[in-house]
C-alpha cells in the first residue's frame, strides 16, 4: 500500500483533519455555551460558533481550489480535547465561576490546537504556491487567534472569581448573580 507521496497530499490530509475538527466544534460549542453562566463567555462562544461555520465553508473552498472533494478525516486530537472538555464541564462545582474557568481553559485548548494545525497547513500551502488556499487558511487563523485573546480577557475576570470562591460575577446583563442569590436567601429567611 503506497503512503503519502507529496506535500500536496500532506496538505489535503491536513485539510481533512481540520475539516473534521471544525465540524465537531459546530456541535461542541453550543454545549459549552449552554453550560457557561458568564454572559461574556456565553457570547464569545456563540459568536465563535458563527465564525466556525464560516471556517467550514473556507475549508470547502480550499478543497475545491486543490481539486478535491470536501470531506473530513477523523481528527483524534480534537475528539479528545472535546471529550475532555465535556467531561470537565459536566462535573459539579462549588461556584459557577469555577465551571466557567474550566470552560475557558477547555476552549483555549481547542484554539491552540487549531492554531497549530492551521499554521502547519498555511506553511505547506505557501511552499506549494497555493496562495488562495494560504489566504483562506490565514483568515481562519486570524479568527482563532482573536478568539483565544477574547477568552484570555474573559478569564481575567472569571479566573480570579473562581480562585476566591466568589460567585459574584455578572450574568451578562450587568446583574450580579451573587446579589440575586443573596436577596433570595434573605426573602426565604424572612418567611420562616
Task: Outline the fold blueprint.
Layout: H1 7-35, H2 39-65, H3 76-89, H4 96-127, H5 131-164, H6 177-191
Describe the structure in your own words.
This protein has 192 residues and is mostly helical. It has a single domain (7-191), classed as Ferritin, core subunit, four-helix bundle (Ferritin, Up-down Bundle), CATH 1.20.1260. The protein has six helices and no strands. The chain has helices spanning 7-35, 39-65, 76-89, 96-127, 131-164, 177-191. Helix 1 (7-35) runs antiparallel to helix 2 (39-65). The radius of gyration is 20 Å and the shape is elongated.
Features of this protein?
single chain, mainly alpha, 192 residues, disordered C terminus
What is this entry, summarized?
The protein has 192 residues and is mainly alpha-helical. It has helices spanning 7-35, 39-65, 76-89, 96-127, 131-164, 177-191.
Amino acid at each position: 500500500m503506497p503512503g503519502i507521496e507529496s506535500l500536496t497530499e500532506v496538505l489535503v490530509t491536513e485539510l481533512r483533519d481540520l475539516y473534521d475538527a471544525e465540524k465537531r466544534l459546530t456541535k461542541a460549542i453550543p454545549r459549552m455555551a449552554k453550560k457557561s453562566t458568564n454572559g461574556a463567555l456565553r457570547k464569545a462562544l456563540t459568536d465563535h460558533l458563527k465564525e466556525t461555520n464560516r471556517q467550514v465553508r473556507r475549508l470547502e473552498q480550499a478543497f475545491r481550489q486543490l481539486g478535491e472533494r470536501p470531506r473530513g478525516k477523523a481528527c483524534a486530537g480534537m475528539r479528545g480535547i472535546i471529550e475532555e472538555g465535556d467531561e470537565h464541564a459536566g462535573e459539579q462545582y462549588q461556584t459557577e465561576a469555577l465551571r466557567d474557568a474550566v470552560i475557558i481553559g477547555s476552549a483555549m485548548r481547542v484554539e491552540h490546537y487549531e492554531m497549530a494545525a492551521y499554521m502547519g497547513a498555511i506553511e505547506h500551502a505557501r511552499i506549494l504556491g497555493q496562495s488562495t488556499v494560504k489566504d483562506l487558511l490565514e483568515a481562519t487563523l486570524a479568527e482563532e487567534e482573536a478568539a483565544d485573546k477574547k477568552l484570555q480577557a474573559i478569564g481575567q475576570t472569571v479566573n480570579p472569581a473562581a480562585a476566591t470562591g466568589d460567585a459574584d460575577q455578572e450574568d451578562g446583563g450587568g446583574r450580579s448573580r451573587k446579589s440575586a442569590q443573596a436577596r433570595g436567601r434573605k426573602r426565604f429567611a424572612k418567611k420562616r
